[in-house]
Amino acid sequence: MTDSPFTVAIDGPAAAGKGTISKQVAAHFGFAHLDTGLLYRAVGARTLTGEDALQAALALTPDDLHRDGLRTPQVADAASQVAAMPAVRKALVAFQKEFARRPGGAVLDGRDIGTVICPEADAKLFVTASAEVRAARRHKELAGKGLTVTYDEVLADQLARDARDAGRADAPMTQAADAVLIDTSDMTIEQAVARAIAEIERRMTGDA
Ligand code: CDP
User: Fold this and answer.
1) Kind and range of the H or E element at 125?
2) Do residues 100 and 2 lie in contact, with contact meaning Cβ atoms separated by under 8 Å?
3) What is the pTM of this model?
4) Ligand 1: which residue has its CA nearest to atom 25?
5) May I ask the CATH class of domain 7-200?
6) Residue nearest to atom 6 of ligand 1 (CA)
7) Sheet-wide strand order for 32-35
8) Which residues contact 101 (CB under 8 A, 6 or more apart)?
9) CA distance 127 to 102
């Protein structure tokens, strides 16, 4: 571990494995981890109870990120809707940028980390997988939590969310020109994590 900032940006579509990879990469290097999707999920969740999206974004507290129920498909959809609002995104930028520069290193995962939040990140990964593989993984995860939702519903929800996230005008989900693409469709989680760690090590040693 180092005291100087080292930022890892991990972007990609819904349920591509970003979360698991980010957590394990952060643990491996001793870096802090921020799941930026949780910020949008927390704002989205507050709008479901009638709150204004911008007010919710401005009033967000760390406690909001630890609430139950942020991983439901309803909240994911609300997150993607508030994430298309430029004022909401703007309200969340400073916190994310500050987190990225913390001493000791940071991993941030989301949709616009390598392009908008940390264009200067030391290592950038774009993690993806086929729509079917991603829907199957998310369906298993939700079923494991006892949610009654079909594979077809999960697939349709994700396709709609990916299209909204990639098509919005402000900070659309896109692979940064200097990001390494990791397609996890045919990888185990161990293989995907090992690949991510190897790519980051190449950046650290200047071999990339
Ligand atoms: O877990 P999953 O990949 O399905 O979603 P997430 O990372 O929790 O993100 C939820 C939603 O937040 C996404 O569909 C995006 O609309 C939004 N988001 C964003 O716009 N920018 C980010 N940096 C992270 C998430």
Assistant:
1) strand 123-128
2) no
3) 0.96
4) 37
5) alpha beta
6) 37
7) 32-35, 106-110, 7-11, 123-128, 180-183
8) 5, 7
9) 23
Q: In the numeric block, which tokens belong to residue 169?
A: 């005008």
All structural domains of the chain with their residue ranges: 7-200
DSSP string computed for 149-186: --HHHHHHHHHHHHHHHHH-SSS-----TTPEEEE-TT
β-partners of residue 108 are 9, 34
Ligand 1 environment, Cβ below 6 A: 14-15, 19, 36-37, 40-41, 76, 79-80, 83, 110-113, 161, 165
Per-residue pLDDT of the chain in tens (208 residues, 90 and over written 9)? 456 789 999 999 999 999 999 999 999 999 999 999 999 999 999 999 999 999 999 999 999 999 999 999 999 999 999 999 999 999 999 999 999 999 999 999 999 999 999 999 999 999 999 999 999 999 999 999 999 999 999 999 999 999 999 999 999 999 999 999 999 999 999 999 999 999 999 999 887 6
